[in-house]
Amino acid sequence: MHRIIKKKLQTNLKNIYNEVVSHKNMIVSFYKYFFVKDPKKLLNLITSKLEKKNILGRIYIAKEGINALISISDIQYRYFKHFFKRIDKKTKRMYMNYTIENKKIAFWNLKIKIKKQLVSSTINNFYFNRNNKGIYLNAFLVNKYFFDKDCIFLDMRNSYEYEIGHFSNAITLPAQTFREQLKKLPKYLKLHKHKKIVMYCTGGIRCEKSTALLKHHGFSNIYHIYGGILSYIKQVKKYNLPNYFKGKIFVFDARLSEKITNDILSKCITCDEYTDRTHINCFNNLCHRLFIQCRSCSIKLDSCCCLECKNIIHE
User: Fold this and answer.
1) Rounded mean pLDDT of 65-75?
2) φ, ψ for residue 112 (rounded to 5)?
3) DSSP symbol at 247
4) For the Rhodanese domain, which residue ranges apply (predicted)?
């Protein structure tokens, strides 16, 4: 009798295990600009619905909308999608990016936080009007504009994102923060005001404000990739289109990057040789700079960005 019970128990455990490992892990990102009357109330609602669902990642709420990047199993996706599409009438048609990731853990916990802005962008004399922004482009139109001589591509991500992957014809706006980028943006593009300007970022949230700012300053031919690079990559795969984004996408989770093509665009900060390694933080905690370094230089400098930092950690 005990043997039968034990055998049934082992069989049940095996079935549960097989069911769990068969599920795919999804990285889902989305944002929506809409007026949130009571961010605290929305936070409590989301927390109560998701805290027992084993969902990991981060969700930011502000009076101007919601922005999320989370990790869930594929069997949870339908519930998750249905829940967020119904939190407000403005989120009903909210676009969600997702990728399948089974190799690495993306997040270790779930963080739900209220912020003043979804992306920090306060600029004097500029009010973000979510109804006055650039024209959305799908992958078909992106590829069409890619060869248009009267069109320029502008990468609105940080330099550490751009250095590991970008559209090969894209220019970047050097700055330490998105707020600084926005301040420089109108003057930086002044000479290109008569051209078509295609802007892009990882998921599209930065370009909503960037294109609105340019429209505010009188730029007329302003476009941005709907859903950002993530959506573009998904579309070129789905419709078997040429892919003009090369290298990797920087992702804001424990994976740090997602490979799109085998092209290696990044260089070692120390020896300036091309390297396929991911970003690391300087081991000198007083510095903590984010950079790329080849294996050889990393060994020589103990994963520090420079000799000065190496000497500090050995003092």
Assistant:
1) 90
2) -115, 120
3) E
4) 147-237
Tokens of 82: 């249905």
Return the CA Rg of the chain.
22
Percent helix, strand, coil in the chain, to 5, is 35, 25, 40
**In the prediction, which pLDDT does 174 show?**
83
Q: Which domains does the chain have, with CATH numbers?
A: 22-114 (3.30.70.100), 135-238 (3.40.250.10), 267-315 (no CATH)
- Of 206, 20, 218, 226, the residue nearest 121 (C-alpha): 206
Which residue in the block uniquely carries the two structure tokens 């302003």? 222
Specify the pLDDT at position 21. Answer: 45
**Residue 207 designated active-site:** no
From the candidates 151, 201, 268, 309, which is the catalytic residue?
201
Beta strands 135-137 and 222-225 are parallel
CA distances in angstroms from 34 to 39, 89, 112, 202, 206, listed in the order given: 11, 9, 18, 20, 15
Structure token pair of residue 87: 């939190």
- Please tell me the predicted confidence (pLDDT) of residue 52: 77
Q: Report the predicted TM-score, pTM, of the whole model to 2 decimal places.
A: 0.85
pLDDT recorded at residue 31: 95
Determine the Cα–Cα distance for residues 304 and 308; give it in Å rounded to an integer. Answer: 9
Of 33, 223, 219, which Cα lies nearest the Cα of 137?
223
Local structure of residue 279 (DSSP, 8 states):
P
Q: E-strand spans in the chain?
A: 25-33, 56-62, 65-73, 96-100, 110-114, 135-137, 151-155, 165-167, 170-172, 196-200, 222-225, 245-250, 257-259, 280-281, 290-291
Alpha carbon distance 142, 221 (integer Å) = 14
Q: What is the DSSP string of 124-175?
A: TT----TTS-PEEE-HHHHHHHHT-TTEEEEE-S-HHHHTTEEETTEEE---
Residue 253 clears pLDDT 90, i.e. is over it = no
